[in-house]
Design a protein that fits this description.
By secondary structure, the protein is an all-alpha fold. Helix content is about 65%, strand content about 0%.
Length: about 240
């Protein structure tokens, strides 16, 4: 895997000078062990519950200017290089909050974040909020999603399945249904779950289309995918 070098950023310097102190001061080793076990040992944790992390984040960002894309890139890459998972959570929240500042050039950075120490806790937010926003803003990036759905890395494929979660009536249904069929035979739980989740999200917009798709392809879709897809569509 190639290593991305964070670009220079005075804002990132400020944030990363504050962040470990602010988070570390309220670390809870007992809770950290529980969180690490729950997340299947994907990374060590500081043990910060979400309300505490949000309060500490406000202190870290107090008085800082709005970031540009260079700042966001630097913060994300530098947070990802820190061992404890809460720093990745900080980066994901920061990217989601300022996703409107990101351009297509950020997609390789998003790929790096998705494939480095991946688990659903970071991947799903990056997929729906960051990658999804990038593709919606630049439809040329759908070609990259076409590559990701076929990738051996399940987290890139999961991202391709989930990147339209927030698109509602602007969903590219041909790709949505095509992607679901492309990975329908996969035995990986996280892909089967993502297929069902992506269909369930679109069912809020067009339940008839989802019911018809599932009916036509029930033999190809995993039972988990079918249950998730039809969970809220009614009879």
């Amino acid at each position: 895997m190639s290593v991305l070098t964070p670009p220079p950023s005075a804002l990132a310097d400020t944030i990363l000078s504050r962040l470990p102190t602010a988070y570390g001061a309220v670390a809870d080793p007992g809770r950290a062990a529980t969180m690490r076990a729950y997340m299947k040992d994907v990374a060590p944790f500081l043990g910060l519950p979400r309300p505490v992390r949000k309060e500490r984040t406000r202190a870290v960002l107090a008085g800082t200017p709005r970031p540009g894309e260079r700042d966001l890139t630097a913060v994300a890459l530098r947070c990802w290089a820190l061992p404890e998972r809460e720093y990745a959570y900080f980066a994901v929240d920061y990217l989601c909050r300022h996703k409107g500042k990101l351009t297509s050039a950020f997609l390789p950075v998003a790929r790096h974040l998705i494939t480095t120490d991946p688990w659903w806790d970071t991947v799903d937010l990056l997929a729906a909020h960051v990658v999804g926003a990038l593709v919606a803003a630049d439809p040329a990036l759908t070609a990259e999603m076409d590559r990701w759905i076929a990738d051996d890395d399940i987290w890139l494929a999961r991202t391709a399945l989930l990147h339209q979660l927030r698109r509602a009536d602007t969903t590219d249904t041909e790709r949505l249904f095509g992607y679901c069929l492309r990975r329908a035979g996969d035995s990986e739980f996280f892909l089967r779950k993502a297929i069902g989740w992506s269909l369930r999200a679109y069912a809020k917009t067009d339940p008839d289309a989802v019911r018809a798709f599932v009916a036509a392809h029930r033999d190809e879709l995993a039972p988990l995918s079918v249950r998730e897809a039809l969970k809220h569509t009614g009879p």
